[in-house]
Every structure is written in structure tokens, then in C-alpha cells.
Design goal:
The complex is a heterodimer of chains A (356) and B (246). Chain A contains twelve helices and 15 strands. Chain A has 356 residues and is an alpha/beta fold. Chain A has two domains: 2-237, Rossmann fold (3-Layer(aba) Sandwich), CATH 3.40.50.970; 242-355, Rossmann fold (3-Layer(aba) Sandwich). In chain A, strand 6, helix 6 and strand 7 (163-169) form a beta-alpha-beta unit. In chain A, helix 10 (290-296) crosses helix 11 (313-320). Chain A is globular and about 75 Å long. The model of chain A has no long low-confidence stretch (mean pLDDT 97). With 246 residues, chain B is an alpha/beta fold. In chain B, strand 1, helix 2 and strand 2 (62-66) form a beta-alpha-beta unit. Chain B has helices at residues 23-37, 55-58, 71-81, 93-99, 101-109, 150-153, 159-163, 180-198, 213-216, 220-234, and strands spanning 43-48, 62-66, 86-92, 115-120, 123-124, 130-131, 169-176, 203-209, 238-242. Chain B is globular. In chain B, the strands form two sheets. Chain B has a seven-stranded mixed sheet, with helices on both faces. In chain B, strands 5-6 form a two-stranded antiparallel ribbon. Helix content of chain B is 38%, strand content 20%. Chain B is built from ten helices and nine strands. Chain B has one domain: Rossmann fold (3-Layer(aba) Sandwich), CATH 3.40.50.970. Classes of the chains: A alpha/beta (356), B alpha/beta (246). The A-B interface holds A 22-23, 25, 49, 51, 53-55, 57-59, 61-69, 71, 73, 87-88, 91, 95, 190-191, 197-204, 207-213 and B 11, 40-44, 46, 53-54, 56-57, 59-67, 70, 73-82, 85-86, 102-103, 105-106. Strand 9 (209-210) of chain A pairs parallel with strand 2 (62-66) of chain B, so a sheet runs across the interface. Bound molecules: thiamine diphosphate (TPP) and iron/sulfur cluster. Iron/sulfur cluster (SF4) binds next to helix 9 of chain B.
Chain lengths: 356, 246
């Protein structure tokens, strides 16, 4: 086990390499540029590939080509750049290819700002591109998790042949914390273990085709239905969440990513006042940990969803709870990070309302 | 006498191209080169949307279908992942010179070690004959019903001339397939492109002046004549750049 003090963005990049990511295709944008910078230094040393593309559109299409060859690869960006990637993401999903995409979110819409935000939840979980598909979405909350989730993302993307997304924000990307890495020998596969890879058939098999075009509607429907069967398996097996002081909680806060850390401080402050509050933190945003949330809210009447947006995850929270709980929202947006004291004030307001 | 057969690098799938369309000839030339170099097993082709979108069914090597214009980026991903793979793209003029301009220019300037087969038929064939970046001044298309007016729609792009200014390019050559002599030259150019790639000597593009009888509203024979009379003066054949970059 190796322990290092690292920025979140760098920890993520190092973990990706250790997970066997051979090729990284980037394009500069704040606040994720450390990922590219790290990759440009480290990849040539370990026999991997770093390439700065001419745009995010090209970067994701390089990923499409590389993933078609059966080789682990990744691209990273921040909100405006991720919008540009959506075309490529849709093609990758349509061709059933594994890869990892990073979004270190900043404020939007448009050019927005460069401060942390969570306003791309809908984009990540509902529609990062046209057509019927999902991405696996992880939301790390610490530098250690930046590293751990990228490893899981590569493994599950491979297993289920689909793109996976790490949804982080500028706070996590820039934050420095100790991070532990398993001791591994860095090695990259050559794609020969992937029977579907379009990497040259060596005159040993029929040609492979990486493709998302099906002009016959019944064929296209079959492909999509098969894909959604895989999604069902993922929903049943790979949801992840953290519960903090939820057992006796009468009010549950739901928050993910860096906001969950702030919410934790608010939980502790509320507990110090004798208010029974807990935190439910989804680690997978898709699939959303519905049963875990329901279980965590068993004894609670009130749920408070806290986000750095105008309220996006709250829709999944309400759906999971089937409108049986009182779900309220507190958020800051545009790059403003909510303070524990603001969250505490909302907790006090909600619990007093209940008492009246 | 050698027997005339279908190249091994083409599958048995019937081509869907219109009668008289020269896409079929160009497919055959690429396949013959792959056969002659014995590289089918090490080749990956990338075909973006356009009339040749289903090239993945016709070429017997591994194939990737790409989004409109993105083939050079996709090919870059394949090549960087496995530098010993032979990678070619097969792109139309709308694809390469309009929506995919950034991708082609940057693949070229990086000296990406790939071979681009660029089919210039002065129109968007697949979507029914709209104006392309290569549509000639005065040419009538579905979206230039009064002829391309350069005051309004600007001027055609001469792709080989433009790309030949870039240091990453090892080969930029314009050919056509209007008669046997030109077909032989076209094949030699494609072979050269693949040889540059084999020796890791840089980016190669072979632009092929091609017909679209359907959208030009001409018989196959008239289409060939129209190409000779109108396209060849505007897009002169020849080598625009040749020489290893590394
Ligand atoms: C993003 C996107 N925009 C538009 C289209 C529609 N489209 C399909 S093929 C094509 C034009 C192809 O023309 P060209 O590249 O010249 O090839 P040709 O069909 O003439 O061989 C267009 C616009 C598309 N598939 N994707
Ligand atoms: S539309 Fe034109 S380019 Fe397309 S197959 Fe027909 S003739 Fe060829």
C-alpha cells in the first residue's frame, strides 16, 4: 500500500493508470486541467498514451476509436466541454463500448463560471447525448474516492460494455488529501481478450464491426432492449451509498460529492443541538440507490436534499421515496458552495415546522 | 492470364451504391491494395456517415462506423492504441471538408500515421444532393437551386492544396477513376499512402474525384463527362505533397 498526499484530480489520474488506462485524450478546461497535466507527465513514463486533442469532440471520438480496439481509455473535461462530448458518448453507448469519462463540474449554463457546481446531474444521469442509453455514474466525495471510483468505473464499464462517468466538482478536483493506492504493476491490455474488439482480425476470425447504425427498426429495438437488460442487472447489483448517523434519524439529508462533506458537518452540528439528523450519500448516481434510500428513511418523516444547483437530484429522491415523505430542498448555485450553517438553519426550520 | 476476381478484402455483401456511382470502384481499389500488401488482418477501416456509411459491411477487415466528420479522430484513437495497425478512413466531401474540418486538419498536422481516402463528388450524396463545401461555383444542387453563388455561399475548398501546406502530411494526391488509365493511377496513389503508413512516415490523403449520377441528375456516362469537363479544371489532378515527414 502506497500513501501519498495528492490533489483529487491527480489521484484520479494516477488511479486510472493503475487501473490499466493506456490512452488518455484531453482538452484543457478549468477546473480539470490537472488531470491532463498529470497524464502528460506520467503516461510517457509508463508506456501509455497522452494526446491533447483539437477539441472535446475529437477527444471523445479518439476514445471511441481506442475503445473499439478493446483498450482501456479515458477523457476528462468540465461542463461546457462535456456538452461537446455528448455526440461521441451517444455513439460509444450505441456501439456498446467501455470507457471512462470525467466531468469535473463547474457552474453553467453556457460558459457559466469556473467555481464548483453540481448542475450537470441531469445531463449525467438522464441524457448525456441522444437516444436510449444510460451511463454508469459515480460521485466521489473525497480524494480517496476519486481514486477508488475510477477503478470501479473501468471494471464495470468493461464488464457491462458501457461508458462510465465520474461526476466530480472543482472542490474535489483541487482539494489535497492523503490517498492510498494498492500496490500494482502497471500494465495495459492489448485488447486481445475482447472478442468484439475491432483491432485487426489477424486472419483468424470474421471481421468485427464497431457500430451504432441499425436501419431496420426491429434490429435496433432488439439492440436497445438487450442493452436495457444489462442495465437491469447493474441496477440490481451495483448501487452504492453511504449512510451517516441515519439509524435513529428523524430527518435525512441527501447530498452527494463535495456537498455531502459539508452536509456531514451540518449533521454533527444539528446532533450537538439534540436534533436527530442523518446523511444519505449516493455514491452511484446512476443507478440511483433507491432501496438504500428507502431503508435509510424508514424512521424519518422529513428529507432535505442539498445540492449545488437549483435542485436536480431531488427528483430522483422523490421518485425513490414515492412521495411518501416530506422532501424539501436547499441549494446554492452558480459556483457558490453552501455553508454548514446555512444547511443547519434549514434543518432547524424543518424540524421546528414539524414540532408546531 | 490472371483471373478477374473480387478482392479478398471485400466481403460478398452486395453494394448498395447507385448504378454508375464510382464509390464501388474506389472500394475495390482500396481492397486490392490491402490484398496486395497482405495486411487485411492488421487493418482497421473507419467509415463515417455519407453514402459509404455501410462500408463496414463491404470491407472484410475490422471496421468502425464513425459519427459524421469524426473519422480522423476515431482513426487517431485506433492508431495510438495500436501503432502497428493499418488504419484508413473513407470519407465524403461533406464529411471531411465541412463538419469534419477540424478533425482532418489536426490529424494531418499531427502527422497522424493513417491513410485517408477522400471521395469528392461535389455534393452530399446520402442526404439527397445538397451543396457541399466542394460544390463548384454555379453548380445546381438541392440547396443551391439557382446555382452556387460565391457571393452568398462562398467558394469551394480545395482540400489537397490546403492540407499540403501542413508539415505533418507525407502524401496529398488527387486522382480520379474516370477511365482505366486514371484508375491505375488512383490505385498507385492509394498504395503509396499505405506504404507511407507502413513505414510510419506520416499522414496520407488520396482525394478521388468521384461521380454522383443520381444527385447530378445524369446518366453514368454523362456524369463521367461532367466530371472531366467541370471538376478536373477546378480540382487539378496530381501530387500536391510527397515525402516522409519522419
Ligand atoms: C451530425 C450529423 N449531421 C447530419 C447528418 C446527415 N448526413 C448524413 S450523410 C450526410 C452528408 C454526406 O455527404 P458526403 O460526406 O459528401 O458523402 P456522400 O454521401 O456524398 O458520399 C449528412 C449531412 C448526420 N448523419 N449527422
Ligand atoms: S447518391 Fe450519389 S454518391 Fe451516393 S451512392 Fe448514389 S450515386 Fe453514389
Amino acid at each position: 500500500m502506497e500513501r501519498k498526499l495528492m490533489k483529487g484530480n491527480e489521484a484520479l489520474a494516477e488511479a486510472a493508470i493503475r487501473a490499466g488506462c493506456k490512452c488518455f485524450f484531453g482538452y484543457p478546461i478549468t477546473p480539470q486541467t490537472e488531470i491532463s497535466a498529470y497524464m502528460s507527465k506520467r503516461m510517457p513514463k509508463v508506456g501509455g498514451v497522452f494526446l491533447q486533442a483539437e477539441s472535446e469532440v475529437s477527444a471523445i471520438n479518439m476514445v471511441y476509436g481506442c475503445a473499439s480496439s478493446g483498450i482501456r481509455c479515458m477523457t476528462s473535461s468540465s461542463s461546457p466541454g462535456v456538452s461537446l462530448k455528448s455526440e461521441g458518448v451517444s455513439y460509444i453507448a450505441g456501439a456498446d463500448l467501455p470507457c471512462v469519462i470525467i466531468n469535473v463540474m463547474r457552474g453553467g449554463p453556457g460558459l457559466g463560471g469556473i467555481q464548483p457546481s453540481q448542475a450537470d446531474y441531469w445531463q449525467a444521469t438522464k441524457a448525456l447525448g441522444h437516444g436510449d442509453f444510460q451511463l454508469l455514474v459515480y460521485a466521489p466525495s473525497s480524494v480517496q474516492e476519486m481514486a477508488d471510483t475510477v477503478t470501479k468505473a473501468f471494471d464495470l464499464a468493461d464488464k457491462y460494455r458501457m461508458p462510465a462517468l465520474i461526476l466530480a466538482d472543482g472542490l474535489l478536483g483541487q482539494m489535497m488529501e492523503p490517498v492510498a493506492f494498492e500496490d500494482v504493476d502497471i500494465s495495459f491490455g492489448d485488447g486481445s481478450d475482447k472478442e468484439w474488439a475491432a483491432r485487426g482480425h489477424n486472419n483468424e476470425r470474421k471481421h468485427n464491426i464497431s457500430n451504432s447504425l441499425y436501419l431496420k427498426p426491429d434490429e435496433l429495438e432488439d439492440r436497445i432492449v438487450e442493452r436495457f437488460k444489462r442495465y437491469d442487472v447493474i441496477k440490481a447489483n451495483h448501487t452504492e451509498a453511504e449512510c451517516y448517523k441515519t439509524d435513529d434519524a428523524e430527518l435525512i439529508i441527501t447530498a452527494y460529492g463535495s456537498v455531502a462533506r459539508i452536509a456531514k458537518a451540518a449533521v454533527d452540528a444539528a446532533r450537538a443541538k439534540g436534533i436527530k439528523v442523518g446523511l444519505f450519500r449516493p455514491i452511484t448516481l446512476w443507478p440511483f440507490p433507491e432501496k438504500e434510500l428507502k431503508a435509510a428513511c424508514a424512521n424519518a418523516e422529513n428529507v432535505l436534499c442539498v445540492e449545488m444547483s437549483m435542485g436536480q437530484m431531488i427528483e430522483d429522491v422523490k421518485l425513490a421515496l414515492e412521495c411518501k415523505k416530506n422532501v424539501e430542498f436547499f441549494g446554492r448555485t452558480g459556483g457558490i458552495v453552501p455553508k454548514p450553517s446555512e444547511i443547519l438553519a434549514k434543518i432547524v426550520e424543518m424540524t421546528q415546522k414539524g414540532a408546531e | 492470364m490472371p483471373e478477374f476476381k473480387k478482392p479478398h478484402a471485400l466481403t460478398d455483401a452486395p453494394l448498395h451504391y447507385c448504378p454508375g456511382c464510382t464509390h464501388g470502384i474506389i472500394h475495390r481499389l482500396v481492397a486490392e491494395v490491402i490484398d496486395e500488401m497482405g495486411i487485411e488482418g492488421q487493418t482497421v477501416g473507419v467509415a463515417p456517415v455519407g453514402c459509404s456509411v455501410m462500408a463496414y459491411d463491404y470491407f472484410a477487415c475490422d471496421m468502425i462506423e464513425a459519427a459524421h466528420g469524426r473519422a480522423p479522430a476515431v482513426a487517431t484513437g485506433v492508431k495510438r492504441a495500436n501503432p502497428d495497425t493499418f488504419v484508413f478512413t473513407y470519407q465524403g466531401d461533406g464529411d471531411l471538408a465541412a463538419i469534419g474540418t477540424a478533425e482532418i486538419v489536426h490529424a494531418a498536422t499531427r502527422g497522424e500515421n493513417i491513410t485517408v481516402i477522400f471521395v469528392n463528388n461535389t455534393t452530399y450524396g446520402m442526404t439527397g444532393g445538397q451543396m457541399a463545401p466542394t460544390t463548384l461555383p454555379g453548380q445546381v444542387t438541392q440547396t443551391t437551386p439557382y446555382g452556387r453563388n460565391t457571393n452568398v455561399e462562398g467558394f469551394p475548398i480545395r482540400v489537397c492544396e490546403m492540407l499540403s501546406t501542413l508539415s505533418g502530411v507525407a502524401l496529398a494526391e488527387r486522382v480520379t477513376v474516370v477511365d482505366p488509365a486514371n484508375i491505375r493511377k488512383a490505385k498507385a496513389a492509394i498504395r503509396k499512402g499505405f506504404e507511407f503508413q507502413k513505414n510510419k512516415q506520416g499522414f496520407s490523403i488520396i482525394e478521388v474525384l468521384s461521380t454522383c449520377p443520381t444527385n447530378w441528375g445524369k446518366s453514368p456516362v454523362d456524369a463521367i463527362d461532367w466530371l472531366k469537363e467541370n471538376m478536373m479544371p477546378y480540382y487539378p489532378l496530381g501530387v500536391y505533397k510527397e515525402g516522409a515527414i519522419r
